[in-house]
Design goal:
alpha+beta; FAD/NAD(P)-binding domain; Elongation Factor Tu (Ef-tu), domain 3; Arc Repressor Mutant, subunit A; 35% helix
Length: 635
Amino acid sequence: MDKQKIYYTTQETDVVIIGGGHAGCEAALAASRMGMRTVLFALSLDHIAMMPCNPNIGGTSKGHLVREVDALGGEMGHNIDKTFIQSKMLNTGKGPAVHSLRAQADKARYSEEMRRTLENTPNVLMKQAEAADIVVEDGKVTGVVTTTGALYPCRCAVICTGTYLRARCLTGEAIVQCGPNGLKQSVTLTNALERLGIQLLRFKTGTPARVDGNTLDYDKMAVQKGDARIIPFSFTTDAESIQREQADCWLTYTNEETHRVIRENIHRSPMYAGVIEGTGTRYCPSIEDKVVRFADKERHQVFIEPEGEDTSEMYISGMSTSLPEDVQLAMYRSVPGLEKAEITRNGYAIEYDCIDATQLKLSLEFLKIEGLFSAGQFNGSSGYEEAAAQGIMAGINAARRVQGREPFILDRSEAYIGVLIDDLVTKGSREPYRMMTSRAEYRLLLRQDNADLRLTERGHAAGLTPVERRDAVIAKKEAIAREIKRVLAVNIAPSAKADELLAVRESTPFTTGIKLAELIRRPELDYETLAPLDTARPNLPPDVREQVNIDIKYRGYIERQMEQVAQFKKLESRRLPQDIQYAEVPNLRLEARQKLDAIRPESIGHASRITGVSPADITMLLIHLERWNQNNGNA
């Protein structure tokens, strides 16, 4: 934007947040709670933390991220605890590493509550405005300009534009230049970013139709209820306060008629007609993509999920589509229970501008622009939870940049957040990135149940999590350690009571004394089941008992992963000088030189995860680093 058009200069701000989605909300709250004067720009203040796609928070691996955001002092867990309508712990038939909490949200209330939180947080000003330009002087951010010409001087800015940059929505042949849910798109900022030398990509995602729940036949579907005992997302939520009657979801399936309708009209899909430019998400394909890619499958799951308690709209999970409206109606009405369904909102695909995140540091600050940070789907990720996780980290680091403090970084051994950011920044993504448990090498240590034990003290040290929460977690750790020590010393003598308990559990009886810990490690037994045999057991909170059971039952596996982490930490501790000239490192392959120079890794471990950098390249880098340290007196 031309300087002549800037007609109004506002009071100076510490941090400007561009975007009011899940990333922007967490970034704004983190920065403001750390004492920063913060302005959040949103295209619409009526759509703060909007859920334009699925009406839920959490799920497999995503639930881990929400718990971690909460442990660091973020808001997403609190907000869903206040606004959920159904809650369920997933994967309980498997080990604790993959247990993940998922909650259906009342979408309208979720947005309202997040806006209320922001409005009542000191140091935050929410402004309905569109960012048009970012002012950079001598390689540093100095301000953000709106489309009305107002300049907001600032020391840091965080881009959280989600799926709004040059967005367009596609339903069959119909193309509308707009953001999600028909909201306004953002156009001007794209040109400003390109002028700053930021490389942009074009991604695509999509959403299914919403239907009028009054037109559905629920007798033809299988009801899906929430858990009998509701577990909160936030570690600070009193579980008793959220026990409530829950809304139902339902399960049905596509069939051969559904697939026939799709196949006969596949040429009308923007994706297959070559109209869509952006790259779509691999792990959340549209229904037409499922039918083409998995042609041998006779049916696909379809979940009917309520959008809220005060609306009859239902979300058709599993049938995301960009097919034309008439095809959508025929397709949905072929599904059992949806024969008379009336569509209230058509499904659509949405294309938008985002970045190759290898342009960022691990702090989510741009490598070449001091004070400019980036978070959320603009970084090439997908999902509300991934956005919130990046948002809180960008907000913390923007605040720390203003404070003159070192960046706050979580590595892959500490958090799913660390895995998410490391994957994006180190490897980049040529399609919308989705968090999965399989991406975390140390997932037995990074469970959703121990996020507070892992991260609350880190969050306090970073400057966000309050001291009261830190002290509560320290006390919890001490209680867990005391009980583990006691249990490891307890012997159980043979008795009729023990025989009876073991028989009920189909467990082998014992004829001589046995360690209580040894019994806990049996697959069919656990700490709770064996309570009648443990006469000296103290009265402990459920979360402490859960940690004791997991630690003892999986101790061997946990210790092995901790050894792996120790090796990982050694490589991470080998810091690389940021002024190193990779062109001068002997015997490095050309591709490795180019990748290392572009990404500027912060450690040997970081360098080893860059695509195109081989183990031989790392060896050459280690040799060069040793020589560099000797020449600079660091040996």
